[in-house]
Amino acid sequence: MRLKLNIFKKIMLFIIVLLIPIVILYSYSNQVSVTVVEDEIQNSNLNRLSFFTSQMDNIVNQLSITSIIVSKDQSIKELLDTTNQKSMFEQLRLQESIVGKLNLLSATSSWSNRLTIYFPKTKQVVSNDYNGVYDPDFLRKNLKTHWEYHPQEAGDAYFTKFMVSPLISYLDPEDAEAIIEVRFFQQNLINMLSDFQQVGKGTPFLYYPGEEPIMNTVSDPTLIRKLVARLDSEHLEPLGHLIVEMNQEKYLVDYVKSKNLDCYLVDFVPLEKILSPIVKSRNLFYFSIGLLLIMSIVVALLLYKQVQIPIKWLLRGVHGIRSGQYAMRLHYNPNNEFDYLFLRFNEMAGQIQELVEKVYMENIRYREAKLKHLQSQINPHFLYNCLFFIKNMIAVGDKQAATAMVLNLGDYYRYITKLENAMTTLQDEMNMVQNYLNIQNLRIERFHYEIDIPESMAQLVIPRLMIQPIVENAIVHGIGKMERYGIISIEGSRTETGNRIIIDDNGIGMSDEKLAELQQRVALPMEEEMSCGLWNVHQRLLYQFKKNSGLVFSHSPQGGIRVEIRWEE
Fold it and tell me: HAMP domain: from which residue to which, for each copy (predicted)?
């Protein structure tokens, strides 16, 4: 079966086909934009982190160089020179000179730091901001040639690096002439992280695997610790990036490893924050597409209501007229240009119905005229038979039978010759039928009839000659073709929906096929050539009364045919 789409479905299909490529292209473009933005932001963050890490490494390198400068200072050599006996004043002067130089070197760095010199042989300690005692256990435990992080539970954590002079004394610090310690505090890194965060959108921190991260004061410690736990399970390259989901939100994480401090500078930012302009643009586009789709549906619905529904009504009306429903009218008010079409359609349908009814009436009248013409041809023969019967009765001296024939024949012809009115009462029709039955009974003398019509039906108006053709068929084609005694019964009754008259006979009857064929013949359209009196009665009943009126044929309980005349007022 071929699928036919109406205008509404075609418009909706067109809108969908039009919007789908646009949505697909935009989705692809949006995905490319998101990828490009993510790549650019990742590269930008990595560059910023690399620059920040290089600054931090440069400062750390400067502090490392400071320890070398201190180890080459002449005052330290003089203080360590034991060949010349120095007075207490001279030693204090050298120590003050060294402290001054340490302060000067410490001030050259942008970070707060501490420079300390340990003299293992003399058990002395010289520092720019520390007055302590020589502790060989501390040196043996912490003496490292690289920068080492010392987290503190209480106080400021720090980074430290030692330089031993001479370098060979690393194996045994007690044999060294001097041990220079360079120390800077964690607060320096915290300050740098704060400055770095102010110029960016992320949250930077320093990550030491297995240690507490170094973060600024405005960071979220809980979130950073969750990220650190995730980083502990990852194998990190010297620099890179990854996407981590925390608290049902995705974060872009970039990291760069510091060469000097052996830690990672990590910066992370929510993807939603990065992509918020693109997301807003995407949501605005989808909202626009949704709004456009809704507006298109509204327009399509309006078009459906204003065009498609009226077209459906017109098609329904055309199909109704085509199928013979000439009373079809369009009871719909579209309140637009279709009002004129509906009005003209109803006028056209009315004119068609009027013309059809006129043609129908002409055909009915033509059939009635033809039937009367046939009756006029039959009546002379019928009249001749009746006159011959009268002559014979007079010849045999049966004046009573002759008189009865004359009276019934006169009443019969008086009724059928009244052609000016096509309607009569049921009582007059039954009187004529009784005259006809009396005439036929006088001639044949081998049947009798019974008539039972209620008094309430006597004045019902019916078409003339509605019952007589049926009675005539029962006598001629039923009783007349058999040898046994015939019976004809006529019974009337009223129902809730209409009236009916049942004519039964005990004639030769018909088979089921013949009855069905007869029922079909009387129901044929009026255009069919049909000279049957039964057809004429059936068609006049259909035209004169409601659609359920007409003749119904069946087997009679008496053995012949039952003809039921039905009509609704």
Answer: 305-357
